[in-house]
Every structure is written in C-alpha cells, then in structure tokens.
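pls ignore typos typing on phone
zinc ion + seq
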Amino acid sequence: MNDFRTGGCACGQIHYEVNGPVEFSFHCYCRKCQRSTGGGHSSAFAVANEDVILTGEIKYYSQPADTGYISYSGFCPNCGSPILSKTERFPDRFYFHAATLDDPSLFRPEVVVFKEQAHSWDRANILLINADK
Ligand SMILES: [Zn+2]
Ligand SMILES: [Zn+2]
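k done
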C-alpha cells in the first residue's frame, strides 16, 4: 500500500502530507465526534505525528474526553473544515478526518468505536475491511 497521503481543508489554507504508515482507521460514533463533524460519526485514520508535514495554522478546540484526558479538535479557522483530532492520552498521534484526504477513496475503515452512541438514523452497520476483528 502507498503510505504517502496528502490532504487539507476546503479553502486550501491547511495542507498536510503523511509519509508513514496508517496505524489504524475507524468510524467513531462518540458524541464529541458527532459535534465536531456535524454528522452521526467521524471517519478517521491514525498516524504518527512525526510522519506528518503540516502547513497552515490549525485552530484547536479542547475539551475533556470521557477518559479524563483532554482531547483536541483541529479545524481551519478560515473555512471551518474539521481536519484532525489529538488526545493528551496519545500525544504522538494525529487522527485525520478521512474526507480531508485529497483522495478519500484511500480510506479503509477497520473498526467501529463507541457504536453504542450511534443514532438510529446513522447505524454502525457499515462494511469494514476486517469485520471479524
Ligand atoms: Zn480552510
Ligand atoms: Zn469520537
């Protein structure tokens, strides 16, 4: 698999390049992701932040997660596109929103998390790459 990925926001002010492996990919149905994406869930992939080159100024909204650690929702202050999230719990990782990719078809969701918080209008019954995991 090609481990080079690029992406950014709607207005182009924020751009990123990932030069390393995707650690895992997921759909998250937690309330925080619902709010930060404006939809029923977020779709994201985790990468080591040392493998990422970011250009543009990301603004972060921070809030405590259920785990007690602070989580950060990063977005473009100009166009408002959600770009990535970070957590104090795993400070070496970025979680990029899948649709920020220049080619979102590269996204391969593997797991669903916080499925119990899914709404009936957005059920967590999507096809996963490794559904048996
Ligand atoms: Zn933007
Ligand atoms: Zn979430």
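The mean pLDDT is 91. Residues 71 and 114 are 16 Å apart (CA to CA). more later
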